[in-house]
Automatic annotation (TrEMBL):
InterPro entries found in the cross-reference section: H-NS-like_N
Descriptive protein name: DNA-binding protein H-NS-like N-terminal domain-containing protein
Cross-referenced Pfam families: Histone_HNS_N
Residues of the DNA-binding protein H-NS-like N-terminal domain: 27-89
Amino acid sequence: MSLTTYEMARILEQLDESPEKVMYGKLLRELGNQSGERIRSAAKNVPLPMLRDMVYQFQQVIESRKDEQVDELAKEIAKQGISVDELKEYLASR
C-alpha cells in the first residue's frame, strides 16, 4: 500500500514524536532560553491576532499541566516525611 504525501503528513502529525513536533519543541525551548528583551523583540514581528492566539494556547497548556506540578510537589513533600494532614494544618494557619 502506497501513501500519498498528504496521508503521510496526517499520520506524522498524529504521532507525539513526529519530526515536526520534535523540532517545534526544540525551537520553543530555545526561545525560552532567550532573554525577555529578545523574546519581546521577536514577538513584535508576529501579527497581533496570531500572537494573542499563541498566548492563549500556551495558557491552555499551562492549565492542563498544573496537575503535573502538584504531583511533583506531593512526591517531594512525602519524601520529606510531611503528611497531608500536616500540610493542610500548615496551610490553614496561614
